[in-house]
Amino acid sequence: ILQGDNTDNARFIALTKLQAGKPYRYLYHPWLQQVVVAYYSGMGLADNALSVVANFYFPSPISTHSIRIGMSGRYIDKLNGVGLNSMVGAPRGFRYINTNELAGLFSLNYSFPLFYPDCDVARLAYIKRLYANAFADMAVDNIGSYKSVGLELNANLNVLQISTPITIGLRSSYLLNTKNFAFDFLFNIDV
């Protein structure tokens, strides 16, 4: 897909989504790849700006587990003093990082299902799956790097018998730079 209002500003998105053909017990398709490339030129913000986000999923030795390697980076040539939004995200657990100053992020994830309760909770929620995700993140800016490791515990469920799946969870991150723990509540609606 090539998007853009003229030849100077273009955003190229290449997605290979294989989710439809995966068995239900798999968290992610074992060979899913997602790549987003954005190039901006002559917008008054910068002479040239390039952002890239890539996620690559691989099979693990256990068939229902998944390995994901995520990378994102950006390059800005001659920034004219105006902020340009970055597609580079912050490492998990760090709350007060200006992501517009990050040059890149590397993320390693290992996701695995814990169990499938398939249970109804007072007709308010139907819990389909509980799963965990172990992660390690590292982001780099012009000052140094930010590193974190941690674990996420998530539940896939449907609320009030609505078919749209919801994911809720808890994240525990250990920030290697500051040697502190951070905890987050996770919420996602899969549309």
Biggest beta sheet summary: 11 strands, antiparallel
Q: Ends: how far apart?
A: 20 Å
- Would you report the number of β strands? 11
Kindly state the mean pLDDT as a whole number? Answer: 80
Broad shape: globular
pLDDT under 50 segments (min length 5)? 1-20
- What is the helix fraction of residues, given as a range? under 10%
Strand residues, percent:
over 45%
What is the overall number of helices?
A: 0
Give the topology string: H per helix, E per strand: EEEEEEEEEEE
Structural class: mainly beta
Rg (CA only): 19 Å
Quick gist of this model?
The chain is an all-beta fold and 191 residues long.
Model description:
0% of the residues lie in helices and 61% in strands. The chain is mainly beta. A hairpin with a 5-residue loop joins strand 1 and strand 2 (9-16). Residues 1-20 have low confidence and may be disordered.
Write the SSE topology.
Layout lengths: L1 E2 L5 E8 L16 E9 L4 E14 L6 E14 L22 E14 L3 E3 L3 E17 L3 E15 L6 E10 L4 E10 L2
Which properties best describe this structure?
mainly beta, 11-stranded antiparallel β-sheet
